[in-house]
Amino acid sequence: MAQTALAEAVGVTFQQIQKYERGANRISFSRLLEIAQALGCQLGDLAEGLDTPMPAGSLDYLNDLLAYDGALDMLSAYAALSTPELRRAVLLHARTLSSALDPGRGEAQVESR
Fold first, then answer.
1. Mean pLDDT of 39-65
2. CB count, 10 Å around CB of 9?
3. DSSP label at residue 108
4. What whole-number distance in Å separates Cα of residue 47 and Cα of residue 6?
5. Is residue 10 very low, low, confident or very high in pLDDT (cuts 50, 70, 90)?
6. CA geometry: angle at 50 spanning 83 and 66, to 5°?
7. Cβ(18)–Cβ(7) under 8 Å?
8. How high is the pLDDT of residue 111?
9. pLDDT per residue over 80-95, tens digit each?
């Protein structure tokens, strides 16, 4: 289904549908239901993993991570990146930095190859 047709079916502009698709705007549960109806599918088809329970302790783990200074700012900046390629590049960079850090000295270690 074209974005324009979906937008008309749920009563929003196609730009709003694009923002939902890119993750630039949050989508309400009621709008998600409208979209599922317009697409003729089940809500679960649009929310893969929604019926999978979170492992015990995972919410505490996420809360602990978000408690670090700058964590929400970092997450917000990551989410604002315009393409999956940019997000992958930033993630790879952050992982490289974190794995290269020597916790004893606080300096990046140089690997010889």
1. 77
2. 15
3. E
4. 17
5. very high
6. 60
7. no
8. 45
9. 888 888 989 999 998 8
Contacts made by residues 44-48, CB under 8 angstroms, sequence distance 24+: none
User: What pLDDT, on the 0 to 100 scale, is given for residue 112?
Assistant: 38
Residue 49 CA to residue 45 CA, distance in Å, equals 9
pLDDT at 110 over 80: no
Both tokens assigned to 25 = 């705007």
Strand partners, 107: 102
Token pair 């602990």 in the structure block, residue: 64
| Residues 6 or more apart in contact with residue 42 via CB below 8 angstroms | 36
- Spatial CB neighbours of 81, under 8 Å, sequence gap ≥ 6: 87, 90
Residue 41: helix, strand or coil by DSSP?
coil
Q: Which residue has the tokens 């999978």?
A: 52
